[in-house]
Amino acid sequence: MTRRTTVALATCAVVLATSVGGEAWYLWGTSPPSPSSRRPVVIGDIDAQSAVVVAATDAATIFSTPAHGYDAHVARATSLMTTPMAGRYRGTAAKVRAQVVGAGTTTTTRVAASGVVSATGDQVQALLFLDQRTTTPGGPPSYDSRRALVTMVRSDRGWLVDNVQTR
Predict the structure, then answer these.
(1) Range of the domain at 19
(2) Considering only CA atoms, which of 79, 43, 41 is closest in space to residue 62?
(3) Dihedral angle at the C-alpha atoms of 84, 94, 70, 80, nearest 10 degrees?
(4) Phi–psi pair at 138, nearest 5 degrees
(5) How many domains, in total, are found in the chain?
(6) How far is 98 from 110, CA to CA, in rounded Å?
(7) Are 26 and 49 contained in the same domain?
(8) Is 20 helix (H, G, I), strand (E, B) or coil?
(9) Is residue 18 part of a domain?
(10) Does residue 71 have a pLDDT over 70?
(11) Residues 88-115, buried b or exposed e (16+ Cβ, 10 A)?
(12) One domain, residues 71 and 135
């Protein structure tokens, strides 16, 4: 091998090693962006939207309450939540159980609109606009609209409801 060939191969090896090192630093050496008021969503649109779809589906289930099968509904709703949120929900559900079951009240909830408020790889806040129809035997239905800020967290079971604030 000539000196010229050796220098050329060594130069190519240095360039290749530098390129691989730079790519590795770019892929693994930088931390993910942090959400801020200027950039509240730091994950891709598809990931954020998929979490909002789960939030909307879960909220419709959680806020719809049947007069019959109330306990099964509570069990189904809490399976969509983190353990702390499920505990808070069970406490609230126990307080209103007698009233809901005794009066035969059924509430059906539909999500009219939804959107992303903030999103990271592990947590998404979704703003949901809920339309609710409540019926009690012998009375006319009543209608209510409300907003819900739903915090979803990623777990090994997928996206789970971690907090709900309604207005």
Answers:
(1) 1-30
(2) 79
(3) -10
(4) 85, 0
(5) 2
(6) 24
(7) no
(8) helix
(9) yes
(10) yes
(11) ebeeebeeeeeebbeeebbbebebeebe
(12) yes
Give the C-alpha separation, 55 to 112, whole Å: 13
Distant-in-sequence, close-in-space partners of 137: CB < 8 Å, separation ≥ 6: 104
In a domain, 38, yes or no: no
Shared domain check, 79 and 151: yes
> Tokens representing 151?
């915090």
**Residues 75, 54: Cα–Cα separation, whole Å:** 18
Which tokens go with 133?
């129809």
Same domain, 110 and 60: yes
- For residues 59 and 102, membership in a common domain is answered with yes
pTM over 0.85: no
- Report the alpha-carbon distance of residue 70 to residue 6 in Å, rounded: 80
Q: Which of 131, 112, 124 lies closest to 149 in space, CA to CA? A: 124
The alpha carbons of the chain give a radius of gyration, in whole angstroms, of: 26
pLDDT in tens, 104-157: 999 999 999 999 999 999 999 999 999 999 999 999 999 999 999 999 999 999
- Classified as helix, coil or strand, 104 is coil
Cα dihedral: 62, 65, 69, 71 (round 10) = 50
